[in-house]
Amino acid sequence: MNIASSKPALSVVSSFVKTEKPTTSPWLAPESLTSTSQGRECPIEHLPNVLKKAVLEVVSIVKCPIPLALNSALGVLAVAGQGVANIRPHRNIKPSPLSLYLIAIAESGERKTTADYFFSAKLFDWVYAQQKELESDFKKSKAHLSAWERELDGVKQAITHKSRKNEPFNEELSRLELLEQTKPSLLKMPQMIFADTTPEAIAYDLTHKWPCAGILSGEAGVVLGGHGMKAENITRNLATLNTLWEGGAIQVNRRGEGGSFDVRNVRLSMGLAVQPSVIREFYEQNGITARGSGFSARFLMANPTSKQGTRALTLEEVENEHSTPYLNSFKAQLVQLLEAQFQQAKAGALVDLPELILSKDALELWIDYHNRIESDLAPNRVYEHYKDIASKSADNVARLAGLFHLLQGYDTQTEVNQETMNAAVRLGLWYLDESRRFFEEVALPVDLSNALKLDSWLIKYCKDNHTDYIDKRKARQLAPNRLRNMQELEKALTELETHNRVKISQEERKTIIEVNPILLV
User: Is the pTM of this model over 0.90?
Assistant: First the structure.
């Protein structure tokens, strides 16, 4: 009997009555395999008013977790603000960019992409408008560059021809020297959003196209699971992303089109969402490298409680247009920052950006935060086992304060005040605790890790094959490698059955693994 083909379509899995394998009891609600500890509430009430209210307006429409909408807002704000200024809390250490690396851990269906749209649409519109306005001048600059390249090729060919005939080519050499000194530049046009790309491609585009950009993606697998994160590439590419977060310089050596190039005076931010299974797999495979290199420490991580199952709509909500005055104010200030960035970046590099300075009260608050985290790295303190994660927290807090400062309309000559720094400190500490909570759950015992792998594989198998069960023998043949060992498979199935995620039953001589239909909807 072909088990997969004998079952009804997935769309009715949760509603049909089984006649082939009657069960002795109804399904109970599936329980989570991992820790169900809840983090602290996101300190949204302490954030600058325009940011707080804009986020809450989007949440009221989208009905997503607050941290998802907040990450969406901060990702867009960082893409715009990072090209306007740096911030220097410590006078003897180089200034920090206002770039942010943000990541939200959420199951599919939490509406992160929808929240992103509310905040990023204005960014995309601005970029498109700039490209249309500059299109004619860009084509002219491209034509001038093509003409120069053709003339350069002609002079080189003339030199080669005369050289072969042992004829003097002093005149051609003079022309070549002059051409090398007068190469026309290709007009820079804003190209600020990356999706599916590699760190080296990002570095190239930041150098040759526009020096300020962001990776905004509802599927972080394009970053964490893409070609750039394969074993042979990961160390180099994590180093590239780390350096871009720092605003540092990179020398890329390569052959082929474009050749080698130097990356400097550019900025990159990231606003990502990732499913728990994807990020767990990434850290299982690359955790030592990612944490050891400091890549993990650079991220502001949110791991919110799901809102699915609580997002009922009312007729009034659907029929009436929502008022979003604070979202509109957020967008208006975003445009101001983009215009300021344009003036800084149109030459092709972010050279001599103004430095935001902290007021004395704000500086004391930042120092207190820095010292608090530092003391908690000591043995038997809260961040003893998370030194890498906590190491960049004070830097991220300074960056948040700088972005909050710009969002509120303050210019780069005005000091960052204590209230703004207080908002950044509260949010930075919340992000740090979210990261710690996540990494406490990622460092799982082998048996539980196996159960998670089997759970994820069973759900995918059933969805792909439009069924809700599989023969145990077949599961052992097809499951991830470590679960093809009978003893490991048995332990994982016991864990899943304990948590109401599967049931094990006998059908004639076969052992059947049934998956809780609730997990397949």
Answer: no
